[in-house]
Write a structure and sequence with these properties.
6-stranded antiparallel barrel, 36% helix, 6-stranded antiparallel beta barrel, 273 residues, alpha+beta
């Protein structure tokens, strides 16, 4: 209290000046219509700016919430579609679970690398949610990568933007199979390999998942061919522009192949040759 009194005594003339200035401004605004209109206009602009920023924050919060809900709904619909497709095509069977190949689990990205040569992505689902090593990861715009490790609550994804990544793909309009890798140059472009000249590719052709691996369903869109070179037997330097913006990944779906163990048991004979 004494400090407040001391402050008032020390700055009493300055405080009196401010008080009189406020009174003068109020009287001027009240007695002059021009000044009053300018004051009201300035006040409206200030309050409008405050409301605009407040609404912006509110809309951002609502947008994030809606994105989470849309991702969860997308995952639910993928699971429903996978089960319904099998049921409709095999309606004479009492059980459809044995024929359903894939299920999907929704997850949120907690950390995303895309500027390095070997990039990884962290998600908030782990072994307690059924996530293990060797699961494909996608979102609504295409393939994200493959899980390489998982703890109880989190999992680590080998990003499609990793020079060690190799994904089975094909041309959407043809049956020619190739592999998709990344040369570590640009986060928007990946490279398509092992496509023979007989494929007769052209700029703008869509690349989708090939379906020959146990990680991804066939036909997931990945990107379009940007440019390429010719070799004697194979195309070279085929650059593919990703549909995904890998610098802005927020929600993903982890794919569980229900037939993976069965398929792996058969593939071991091939790997042992």
């Amino acid at each position: 209290m004494q400090q407040i009194i001391f402050f008032i005594q020390k700055y009493r003339y300055f405080l009196l000046f401010i008080f009189l200035e406020i009174i003068a401004i109020v009287l001027t605004i009240q007695t002059h219509s021009l000044h009053r209109s300018k004051f009201i206009s300035a006040t409206n602009r200030f309050t409008g700016s405050i409301y605009e920023k407040t609404n912006g924050f509110s809309e951002l919060f609502i947008l994030k919430k809606n994105n989470a809900q849309l991702s969860q709904e997308n995952t639910r619909l993928k699971n429903l579609l996978a089960a319904t497709t099998i049921k409709n095509s095999n309606s004479f069977l009492d059980s459809t679970h044995s024929l359903q190949k894939f299920t999907y689990t929704n997850a949120k990205v907690t950390k995303n690398n895309f500027r390095k040569k070997r990039n990884f992505i962290w998600i908030n689902k782990g072994t307690k949610d059924g996530v293990t090593k060797g699961m494909g990861v996608i979102n609504s715009n295409g393939i994200i990568g493959v899980t390489v490790d998982a703890t109880k609550n989190y999992a680590l994804i080998l990003s499609i933007l990793n020079i060690d990544s190799s994904i089975n793909v094909k041309l959407k309009s043809k049956r020619h199979i190739g592999s998709l890798t990344w040369n570590g140059t640009h986060y928007k472009n990946v490279q398509l390999n092992d496509i023979p000249r007989e494929a007769k590719i052209k700029i703008g052709d869509t690349i989708v998942s090939g379906g020959e691996s146990n990680l991804f369903p066939e036909g997931i869109p990945i990107g379009v061919i940007k440019n390429f070179d010719f070799d004697r037997n194979f195309y070279e330097n085929i650059n593919v522009v990703l549909f995904n913006d890998m610098s802005a990944i927020e929600y993903v779906q982890i794919i569980q192949n229900l037939h993976k163990k069965e398929l792996d048991s058969l593939n071991q004979y091939i790997s042992n040759e």
